Amino acid sequence: MNNTTITQQHIEDIDSEITWKKWTNILGHVDTLDDYFYAHITLSNWYELEVYFNDESLYELLEEKFLVRKSWAWTNTKGKIYFNSKKLERAYWIFDDITNEAYIEGDWFWIFKSAISGLATLLWCQDNGILPVHGSAIYSDSIGWVSLIGAHRVWKTTGLLNIAHILWEWNIISDDWLQAQIWEKSMSVSTTDNSISLSTRTVQENPHIPQLNTSKVLWDVKRRKTSYKPSDLLWSRFIETTSEIEINSIILLVTWVKDAVTILGNDITNVPSFITWATYHFPYYTVSIRERHKWIWQSGLERIKPKIIVFDHSHFEMMVDGYATLVDILVRWKK
Predict the structure, then answer these.
(1) Residue 241 pLDDT
(2) In whole angstroms, how far apart are CA 182 and each of 4, 30, 89, 158, 327?
C-alpha cells in the first residue's frame, strides 16, 4: 500500500520562486561589465566560480559564506555567474550549458548565494554523480547521522539549532545546502556553504538558545540577516566541523500533513519527487535532469534503506516539545 503522507498535490504545491531557462549568449543579457563588481570565490568544498554583480554591498555577504578574492587572477574556475540584483516577485535564471555561464535576476543576496551553490552543484554533478539537497545535516553520538530536508519556510535552520541545543553536542555540516552521493551501501553529504544564516525572526523564535541571544548576534541580525561559520556562532567546546558525513536518518520537513510525526518505513512513494522539488534553487532547466535525479534517489534509497520521518512542527504549541519528540525518536533508533 502506498503511503499517503506525501501526495503528488503536496509536491506540486512547492513553488520554486525561480523561472529557469536554457539559453545561449549569456553576455547578451549583460549591459556592460564595467557596471559589475567581480569576485573569485572558493566554496566550502573547494569548488571555484567567478561571479559578477551590480551591488558592491554584496562583497560583505559573500565573505561571510565563501573565500573571496576581489582582484582577477588566473584561476581554476569552472563557471561564471552574472547577477543583477533587482526587486522581483520571481527570480529569473538563464543558463548556457556549453559555456557554463549563468545570468540571474533576483531580489538581493539570498537568490544570489543559492544560485552560487546551485550552479557549483550542477557543474560538479555532471562528472561526479552529485545530487543537490535543500537541507541541513548534523551528527551526534546520540542520534547518528541525520539530514533535515525541506523547501522554504519549514524551519530547517530552527530545527537544526534546536536539535543541537537539546543534544548539547553535535557536528554540523550546513543549515541550507547539501551535496549528496549515494554509494552501494551508504549515503554521504557535504556542502558548498558551511554556514548558519540567522534572521531577526529566527532569533526571536528561539529565545531559549543562548548562542543566538548574545549581544553580538542580536546586533548583527538587527542590521540584516547574517551568516556565521558554525565555530563562530556556537560554543567552541560543543562544535567540531567536518567536511562530510554519512547519513542514516532523513527528516522530511513539511507543514501540511495530518500527523506531527510519520515514520514511512520501507515505502518511499513520492519521496524522490519531494526531495527534488524541495531543492527549488537547483537549476532544473530541463525535465531530463530532474527525472534522472529522481531515478537516482529512488534506486539509492531503496538500496540503502535509511530511516525516513515526515515531521510537521506546526502540530506543537511549544517548539521545544516538537523537537524533543523528534530527538527522542532518533535516539531510540540509534540504540
Answers:
(1) 58
(2) 26, 38, 35, 27, 25
